Amino acid sequence: MKISIVVPSYNQGDYVAATLDSILKDQGDNAAEVIVNDGGSTDQTVEVLQRYGDRIQWSSAPDFGQTDAINRGLRRASGDICAYLNSDDVYMPGALETVLRHFIDNPDCDLLYGDASHLYADGTFMEAYPTAEWNYDRLFEQCYLCQPAVFWRRRLHRRMGFFDERLNLGMDYEFWLRVGQTSNVHYLSGKILAGSRLHADTKTLRQRAPAHREILKIVRHYARQPADCYTWLKHLASILSMDQGFPPSSLTAEHQRHLLVFSRNVLALAEEYRIELNGSILNEIAGLAGLHSRP
């Protein structure tokens, strides 16, 4: 059984060697097929890739973004198990052996995820990623799968398709929601498989509002009931409130203004995304905005 790892890359020359070494040097005898699709980097990325010779398959040319790069790699993959690892993330030593053993021992498993860590830009530990036991209902409230710690059988693409190329920021979350509806998902509790760097250039930190807008659209598509959307609706409303100059504060006056703007944003987003608000959340929003009397 073989694992294929797709590495989408663009101007991550400071990190890509650590990413590739975590696949090629830190996994013992568990060799993986490594497919690097670089979007035409203008930094030292190509020079780094050239050093790996025939140990990796790689190309560097303009593309249509990260999701396109991932899918092109997955279509070329020949392994039984697939994953993608961004060019600033890493696998922990022994991760691939753990993953392969689980798939061999559990032929019913379609998709597998484990624990992960957030890392600083220099690769040192920041914090544990908030992973959790598999529960499809909970997935609407929190994306508790850390993308670099997720692996799946290649056969899954024949049934479920690839990542949605209309998405730029939440394509992994959409894939988990799509696959999770009908597939067998397993969780390796206590097994730290990967490290995900958080630094100023990551898309999710640079584009918080666009990322959460895309996520809310994804959740709206898969929601079974309006309540499935409420958590992400409130997350986005809070981000918009902060972007509008009303950060949460312990100062009473500022905090009240934030809550009022936050409540207005919730109502506006619910209208924009056509999400019906039930009585409970309307009362919550009204209370936050000070729109009804308190006992």
Report what the structure shows.
With 295 residues, this protein is an alpha/beta fold. It has two domains: 3-204, Spore Coat Polysaccharide Biosynthesis Protein SpsA, Chain A, CATH 3.90.550.10; 207-289, no CATH class. 41% of the residues lie in helices and 18% in strands. It contains twelve helices and nine strands. The chain has helices at 16-24, 45-50, 66-76, 95-105, 136-139, 156-160, 171-180, 203-206, 208-222, 230-243, 252-272, 279-289, and strands at 3-9, 33-38, 57-60, 81-84, 90-91, 111-119, 125-128, 150-153, 185-197. Strands 1, 2, 3, 4, 5, 6, 7, 8 and 9 form a nine-stranded mixed sheet that branches. Helix 7 (171-180) runs parallel beside helix 9 (208-222). The longest helix is centred in the C-terminal third of the chain and has 21 residues, at 252-272. The N and C termini lie far apart (65 Å).
Total number of beta strands:
9
CATH class of the largest domain: Alpha Beta
Q: How many discrete structural domains?
A: 2
Order of helices and strands: EHEHEHEEHEEHEHHEHHHHH
Named CATH topology of the largest domain: Spore Coat Polysaccharide Biosynthesis Protein SpsA, Chain A
What would a concise description of this structure say?
The chain has helices at 16-24, 45-50, 66-76, 95-105, 136-139, 156-160, 171-180, 203-206, 208-222, 230-243, 252-272, 279-289; strands at 3-9, 33-38, 57-60, 81-84, 90-91, 111-119, 125-128, 150-153, 185-197. It is an alpha/beta fold.
